[in-house]
Amino acid sequence: MTTNFPRLKPDPIPTVRPVPEYAVEGQRAEWYAEMKAALQVPWMGVVTMAFAHYPNLFAELWRGLKPLVGSEAFVSEAHGLQAMVEAAAADLAPPAITNRLIDSGYGEREIDQIRAVNAVFSHGNHAYAIIAATARLLLEGGEMTGAGGDAPQFSGRHAPDVDVPFMLMEAHHADAPTRATYDDVMAVLGLPFVNTDYRAFARWPSYWAAGWGDLRAVAASPACEAICQRYHNQAVGAVRDRLPNPGGLSGATLRDAAGADAPLDEVIEVVRLFQWLLPGLATNVAHLKLQLEDI
Prior knowledge:
The mean pLDDT is about 95. It contains 12 helices and no strands. The chain is mainly α.
């Protein structure tokens, strides 16, 4: 059930202060490493780096999530989100892009690398979406009321078996056309920053320009928003109704932790922003993935 928990974009957009991996040390560096290992991802999402700006919030959230995110139940819910959004994105009719890349000079090895980078995000984004939904639900007065505290751990690897350099094209490294594309992404999506996924795809500037050009036609459209709403409902339902709570997370404890860092309303607005944007990011990455499939 997702009653009384709407998908909600903050207005105005709050200031976001992510704490990048290179800037952490000590306990927070250990938590970053633990989180990436548990989620089986090669990057810290902007969402969790933004949460880390609030150290008491981040400490309590990760304390409670650590025994959950490696569980069979969590992995199953993340995979369920991926399956749903990729099936739904097919209805957006993503135009095939592989032949266009070949015609412009891309080799199969390069195209496989782009697919591999997409596979990393197609797997990892859903774990971050569940984390954001957990934080928002608890901060806004909800509780995890699902399957109790038993959380058998997932055995083995659930992430894609790919080996690809993870390089981000930051705006200050990019050429003028790529910076213009970044500006367009922010304008179309209504965000003050460019997500990690898009900066990774821009490692191949001509691919990203073409991929975004196709995606732009449907991004933030009513059809895309309908998929985002389904994604939101499924993620929130997982947190509230289905996932166990082995770490004993509670709304009161998380609100107390957040309130020790900053005014609670400020923290909630930041959490709302990421919980709002992640369904759209997942939908867009699914669209880009389907473009790269051989048809």
